[in-house]
Specification:
Chain lengths: 311, 280
């Protein structure tokens, strides 16, 4: 009897240890991702420094002079534009689901929107390259150019030859991909608004939109903020969809109709072709910068959403 | 126009915008799916699944090599990722639920879910491909497994937490040790949820391309040797779509159709199981 108990206790400790090791793997993996990317980047860090690297617009594999400015710029500009399009649309969708949609349609409609997030990015790329980009280049972009190009200053944004393989097309596709991330989190936080608050607003004669604007949205602002940051992390790291439609051009674009390059696209296209140590190391350096940005953003989003959960 | 009229008009405009946004979301979904269906379905032929690649320009080629490669890479990724994810999730929800390290790892996995997949590809290249000196199917599986682990881990943790604590206490009262309670009681209660989590994780990795580009790389020939560069459907789509040949484009569309159907089917199935299980 005592022997059985002893054996069971040992087995229990063993099982606890195995599960702990499995969970600990997450920490090990994350730490080794950071350390190994840092180690691989050292050659490039020695050669260019940090501020030197992110401020240099050079990307010249032949002379081995590399800088991150053009790809960082491409990454940030497409991400921010995608957010500018996705945030209002996602808020509209969340409002529609929580306040306007008939009850029996709610689960179907929510699932439909979330399927947009399940479609793999390579499919967005195929669709973008063969269907959407030609439509943009042939119809939408010339039309936009006709309207906006004569306007001084603003016209610069719409100059150039609209081919469809450019920043505008990429941003729109990215915005479609990140919309469900924002709308599903926002929908959940909208649903947390206390009914009493809403009803007191209706009770003093507020319209539905006024309740949304002055009660629901202020009550959900941490959730909205957190979801936007998560979506931003998604857009920063998106690779395949962007690789198809952005054109991979290392230059600071000044028009929405210019091709550009992001960190992810540069990695996808050049990693296996990098023929010198410094070239490969610079690519690792780009990956490290992307990882750092992404990790920081997600940590911020987690703190915001966690605070919301406690409140 | 009175103040009230003005407020009503604003209300109407704002709510119409909301409906328009919803319609736009649905429009994109239908546009993309219809487009994949329209382009893909015509090229779904037996030859696509049964033939291997022919030299560019020669008719009669298929993607058998890519289908088999994709299956092998995914299979080994599941083999590495699922046990680690389930065991880790068990620790977070059971032994480690009150420990600081458990909370910390749980948060860390949430962040890890969002690490760009291409970064994971570069990581596996650095620790696996570079030291060995060649691309391999194993490297691709490893990259996909790393993407999978936090997903499986977090769903397992959540599904196990849903099992009522009283059930464990009933088993403890009978003198069962904790590990037996977990293995025989908790896992049984959470099985459907964990299984769904695995389905959704497979759906997630099946469409991944970026982490395979510099791990399993690509191969024009059929291989079952996981130690060699291995073709996958997704990387093949990328290569074929960017290539200059029409029949390459056709096969890329057909492969896109198959992969979309597979992933959406798995996703919808997972959601249905969850709804069916947790409604009753």
């Amino acid at each position: 009897m005592a022997g059985t108990i002893k054996r069971e206790q040992t087995l229990d400790k063993l099982f606890a240890a195995i599960t702990f090791l499995a969970a600990f793997m997450v920490l090990v993996i994350i730490v080794s991702i950071f350390t190994s990317l840092f180690r691989e980047s050292l050659t490039a860090i020695d050669a260019f420094g940090f501020f030197g690297f992110i401020s240099s617009t050079a990307w010249d594999p032949v002379r081995e002079n590399f800088g991150a400015a053009t790809t960082l710029y491409g990454t940030l500009i497409t991400t921010l534009m995608a957010l500018a399009i996705a945030v209002p649309v996602a808020l509209g969708i969340a409002i529609f689901i929580t306040e306007l949609c008939p009850k029996f349609l709610k689960p179907i409609f929510s699932t439909a929107i979330e399927l947009l997030a399940a479609i793999p990015s390579i499919i967005y790329g195929m669709w973008g390259l063969f269907t959407f980009a030609p439509l943009m280049g042939e119809y939408v972009e010339p039309a936009l150019q006709g309207i906006f190009e004569p306007i001084p200053l603003l016209g610069q944004l719409f100059s150039g030859v609209p081919l469809g393989i450019d920043i505008l097309t990429t941003s729109i596709i990215l915005s479609i991909m990140i919309t469900p991330f924002i709308s599903s989190i926002v929908r959940d936080t909208f649903a947390l608004t206390p009914v009493q608050l809403k009803e007191s607003a209706y009770g003093i004669g507020a319209t539905r939109w006024e309740v949304i604007r002055d009660v629901i949205i202020p009550h959900s602002k941490t959730g909205i903020f957190g979801s936007v940051i998560i979506a931003m992390g998604r857009a920063l790291g998106e690779t395949m969809a962007v690789a198809f439609v952005l054109g991979n051009k290392h230059a600071i674009a000044t028009s929405l109709f210019d091709a550009s390059a992001t960190i992810t696209v540069t990695l996808a296209n050049e990693f296996t072709e990098a023929d010198t140590d410094l070239y490969l190391s610079s690519l690792f350096y780009l990956a490290l910068i992307l990882l750092g940005m992404n990790f920081l953003l997600l940590a911020i989003a987690k703190t915001f959403l966690a605070r919301k959960g406690k409140a | 126009m009175t103040e009230i009229d003005k407020r009503k008009i604003i209300n109407f405009v704002a709510l119409s915008f909301s409906c328009a946004a919803a319609a736009l979301g649905l429009f994109w979904l239908i546009f993309i799916l219809a487009d994949v269906l329209r382009h893909g379905i015509a090229y779904i032929t037996p030859a696509l699944f049964l033939n291997e690649a022919t030299p560019p320009g020669m008719a009669g080629g298929g993607l058998k090599h890519a289908f088999i490669g994709q299956l092998l890479i995914t299979f080994f990724a599941v083999l590495i990722g699922v046990p680690l994810g389930i065991l880790g999730g068990t620790y977070l929800a059971e032994y480690g639920r009150h420990h600081l390290i458990g909370r910390f790892i749980s948060t860390l996995s949430d962040i890890m879910i969002s690490v760009p997949s291409i970064v994971i590809g570069t990581f596996v290249y650095a620790i696996f491909v570079k030291p060995l000196g060649h691309f391999s199917g194993y490297a691709g599986s490893l990259a996909l497994a790393i993407i999978m682990i936090p997903v499986v881990l977090r769903t397992t943790e959540e599904m196990i937490s849903l099992v009522p604590w009283e059930i464990r206490e009933a088993a403890f009262a009978l003198g069962a040790p904790y590990y037996k309670v977990i293995l025989q009681i908790v896992y049984r209660g959470a099985a459907t949820g964990i299984f769904t989590g695995i389905l959704l994780a497979i759906a997630r990795i099946a469409g991944e391309t970026a982490p395979l580009l510099f791990t399993s790389f690509n191969n024009m020939f059929l291989t079952t040797n996981m130690n060699e560069p291995m073709p996958s459907l997704t990387v093949t789509i990328y290569q074929y779509a960017m290539g200059p040949y029409d029949d390459w484009h056709e096969m890329a569309w057909a492969a896109s159709f198959v992969i979309t159907l597979f992933i959406l089917g798995l996703t919808i199935l997972g959601r249905l199981i969850i709804r069916w299980k947790y409604k009753n």
